[in-house]
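Please, structure for the following, as tokens.
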Amino acid sequence: MMASLSTPPVTAGVSPSPRPSLLAYKKAAGLTPSPWCGWRRAAVATAATSSNRTAAPAETIVTGNDVPLLSFAEVAERLDEFHASGTRNQNYMAMYSSIFGGITTNPSAMVIPIDDHMVHRGHGVFDTAAIMNGHLYELEQHLDRFLKSASMAKITLPFDRSTIQSILIQTVIASKCTQGSLRYWLSVGPGDFQLSSAGCANSALYAIVIESPSLPVPAGCKVITSSIPIKSQQFAVMKSVNYLPNALTKVEGEENGGFTGIWLDDEGFVAEGSNMNVGFVTQSKELLMPRFDKILSGCTAKRVLTLAKQLVADGRLSGISSRNVSVQEGKTADEMMLIGSGILVKPVVQWDDQIIGSGKEGPIAQMLFNLILEDMRSGPPSVRIPVSY
């Protein structure tokens, strides 16, 4: 039996009715949209046509009389309009917020308070669980890490573990999503814009379901050695919302024609990618990963290490090891791969100017990709929780 929420819970198996769009109401009734409809779109379009951002034409300057004072209904209407504009490139199926104490399936209502300290101070943690064939994959394992991160970040839980798990599962039920991901956050909560969280009365839990109908493809990629400083050990092993270094490492990799950047630790050993772990197949056919003591302990990476025992048993791998990996050893490996929940197992065929192995996707990376994908589809109950839609 699911734990009860502090507010009336969503009934399992019953999807809440989404709030109909105000624009839809007006169109159905034959009403003319608010005179302010399109104001934001027009302003953005005007600004976008300016070739000189530092000296915009006079007509793009916003004065006090140009900025409307909006009612709540007008704000909701504009949020609907923003969502309908196609600016977002992912499908958000449902969101839970402990602030309003329930689940919404209207993407326009999927908001959090701006004075939440997770927003303006980065005082929050998060995690993700995949949804595959109507099952949550490794939710328990991700929750373990999630709650450990919250403890390290000094965030008091708004509910006990069983209630948090119940809320997450009910959010997936409401979403009706059978393939995608469940992402969730714990924050010290809203309250003010101070640095200290002393003014935050209650911590906050948020969760969102993102539909992803297509599966990742294990195509080979290039990586670079990142010039962005790696996070210190205390923050690297915690999955907090402080992902600016991660984002800049990813952007730097893309700017240099690659998929992402690779961090080295303070001793110069291979650490991790921007938001994924790194694995190698050595010339002696050993599956090798850097130790998790200075980097994030990847749930997918640890599951891959478990599944890889099958390849040791059939002789495809000589062994499995976790230890320090030098850049030289990594670059001369037979295979290199990135491992994470969003990509599963992605082969690396070039690191900086060094071609890895044959320069093509390696067979072990492909086998590990297939093993983790099959585990997501039909693995044991220890890693798969069925969702009762």
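Confidence is low (pLDDT under 50) at residues 1-58. The chain has twelve helices and 16 strands.
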